[in-house]
Write a sequence for this structure.
């Protein structure tokens, strides 16, 4: 079983891509809604949370882990690799970096994300490992997550904020923009309009699901249950999250709070 | 010692008022930055967190507890009262309600706050207990907290969002507006401009500090240390929080993460 965790519901954009690229593949999702968001928290805290989340997913049957969250991928991947060395772990950053490098023609790539992701400098580092000549420009966009969670997808306020965040990247004439946070693909239309049609948007969810699909197919892994056998866990249940989740995934899902495991997340 | 907890740094507006109204009074602050914000979380989760936070404050020497957070005041006060029946506990809602009732002339009061606070209906209930004839209008303003934490205090985007949130309250001709979230006093200028000069803004921090000061003076409680003896604890330390906190309080403070107690907050 593929287990995916996220700081909240953002990782559902990754789930949606997995359902698209691996039809019939059941998944186990864990959203850490009791401690969401991760974007402004410290590396130490995010690593601790990510280890707890992974332990939980393994305890309920996951055998492959996907970190469905850019901040946790940036901050906690190394800690997870070390702690769970025998488990295949996928993060969302490397696949996006590879896709962006294939896409860019003028070698000017932009990255947007939470403060945690952007300040970690991980996108820049990974891009330069593969091609040191590429110029990387980045901008934290901390208001995008609350705007998406408010459902303010194409309101004038959202457009105004997007223009403010993206103007420097536009001036720097990037031709490729990595949407370095799982919430951002929901704002694709506004972001594309403000950054201009010349720039290609890279969605890490898509790139990550593709990498996972390749792995699964190569290993000849077979699944017994259909996608309906998927399970969704949350550390806190608020009515709003179910509504957003169903809207995003386009299907009814029921969330479970594993209360007997509550101490895991305090 | 007075112990104050908040979901993060918002409660520092209450601390600032306490320093103003009780000069020389040292306090112990705990900001739950590892699990912030509380605004969209469930009552069960917020109660659990509030009990843990109170236990921590008592363990480090607090003898009076102030819930420096509207969401926790709305969701967890009863649970704390029951659990810690011998400790004086102050919340920020009743003092604001009393101040608003004294202020209103046309008996039309507005309340803004997080989704959690507004949906709990607690302001309406408490106002109607004291005066059932008052009409209460409310509006959740979930983007105000991230805007304040971004430092976007008087940007055009903030003004536009404030106009959107406050237009219905303005149409309803309220003459008194309760700022039902500890972050909102930082947006006083923008809020006053958009709601109009006729409406009086009620800051729960001010009203709560006054109530606490009355209690302290009446009981003849004496303090040995000066305000410099205050201690500030956080469950997660990010550079941003120190910067915002010092800007708000107008003085240098050093935060402590009590790592030996980390399991309290998982």
């Amino acid at each position: 079983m593929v287990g995916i965790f996220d700081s909240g519901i953002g990782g559902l954009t990754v789930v949606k891509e997995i359902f698209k690229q691996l039809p019939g593949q059941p998944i186990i999702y864990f959203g850490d809604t009791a401690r969401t968001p991760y974007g402004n928290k410290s590396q130490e805290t995010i690593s601790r949370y990510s280890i707890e989340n992974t332990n939980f997913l393994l305890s309920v049957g996951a055998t492959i882990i996907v970190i469905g969250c850019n901040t946790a991928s940036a901050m906690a991947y190394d800690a997870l690799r070390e702690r769970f060395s025998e488990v295949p772990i996928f993060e969302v950053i490397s696949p996006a970096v590879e896709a962006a490098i294939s896409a860019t023609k003028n070698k000017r790539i932009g990255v947007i994300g939470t403060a945690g992701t952007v300040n970690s400098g991980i996108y820049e580092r990974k891009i330069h490992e593969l091609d040191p000549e590429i110029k990387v420009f980045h901008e934290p966009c901390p208001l995008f997550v609350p705007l998406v969670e408010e459902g303010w997808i194409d309101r004038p306020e959202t457009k105004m904020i997007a223009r403010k965040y993206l103007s420097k990247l536009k001036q720097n004439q990037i031709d490729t923009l990595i949407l370095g946070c799982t919430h951002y693909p929901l704002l694709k239309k506004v972001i594309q309009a403000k950054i201009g049609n010349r720039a290609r948007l890279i969605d890490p969810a898509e790139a990550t699901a593709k990498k996972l699909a390749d792995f699964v197919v190569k290993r000849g892994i077979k699944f017994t249950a259909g996608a309906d056998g998927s399970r969704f866990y949350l550390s806190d249940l608020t009515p709003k999250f179910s509504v957003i989740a169903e809207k995003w995934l386009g299907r009814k899902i029921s969330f479970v709070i594993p209360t007997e495991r509550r101490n895991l997340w305090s």
User: Anything to note?
Assistant: The first helix of chain A runs from residue 12 to 21. Residues 41 and 194 of chain A are 28 Å apart (CA to CA). The beta strands of chain A are 2-6, 27-31, 64-67, 89-90, 108-113, 135-140, 176-180, 200-202, 231-234, 255-256.
